[in-house]
Design brief:
DNA Polymerase III, Chain A, domain 2, 3 domains, elongated, alpha+beta, ten-stranded antiparallel sheet
Amino acid sequence: MKITVIQESLARGLSIVGKAVESRPTMPVLSNVLIQTEESRLRLSAVNMTLGLGITCWIGASVSESGSITLPSKTLMDLVSNLSPEKVTLTLDTNTLTLQLTCGGTKANIKGIDADEFPPVQIADGGGDLAVDGKVLKEMIQQTAFAAAGDDNRPILTGVYTLIEGDTLTMAAADGYRLAVRTAKLEQAFPERVEMVIPAKSLNEVARIISEEDSEVWITLPKERDIVMFHLKNVDVSSQLLEGKFPDFRAIIPRQYSTSTVMYTSDLLRACQRAEIFARDNAYSGYLYVTPPKGPSEPGEVKVASKSTERGDNEGVVDASVEGEALDISFNIKYLIEVLRVIHDERIVLESGGSAHPGVIRPENRDDFIHVIMPMSVTR
């Protein structure tokens, strides 16, 4: 194998697939990246057998001799990212399985493992089953995956429930303390109802990779194997699905509220970020005191407060439009910050049925995103 590539392209390709490399692999080859020539392109692939995740990226290359090899991911990434922005020549010695890399005045020899030892990686076979606007899909993932569970006590909750029904795509994630649900309309109605649970870690990689160039992302739905695939412009991501039944999340979305509050998203976010500084010592508990207007010409307000026994306390007042009863409720302030960071609308609505009931957060004048957060039971 002998090829020439642009340093910037190689570095970007390695950064994309490198996220799929296992940190503690069961086999040495799983810590490697597969490098393989395909006509006038170079194919880079990595797999994570634990997550069931595979990422393949193609970059332009001048191919003098075809071939393939697997190389240590971290070694190759660290080296390429520190090269000068010039052409990089890769030459493989098949007898010693050593790749010689030259770039400007730099020359390096990297020992690899035979490509035949690398596990098979799923790649696109055709266009896919349905297309989703790239920007929309990225936002949907960002607005749901953060609410998935981070531990494996209930493996199904580490994933994002994904439903395709007619012309509607729904994504939902929950960890037992909060729930995020996002819907979007598809350009075409899908003939079959499809539901699956995709690992949140896999979807986060899809969102990370989606760029401005990806005006649409094609999705290949599971068939005989429980694998879903996402096809971007020059990248394929495959993910094993999670087994099990996702809880009925619709049953926990409150239908009635006694208090409805409208606030500027940025104002509430900054107030919560200040509160977090002191809430860290108190299980991240933050207090929201919602006060309705005292007169027809007066605004309502929301006071966001937190305290630390050792370091002090903090409170901030946010102007708000309040309808209904006064509300005194405690939430995990980190959870509030995380959801406010993924809402890009100017104002949000906070609704609740009381201090012992969940809070519901959604963008104002939109019904395609809803976030439910359970209250904390704390001693004031």
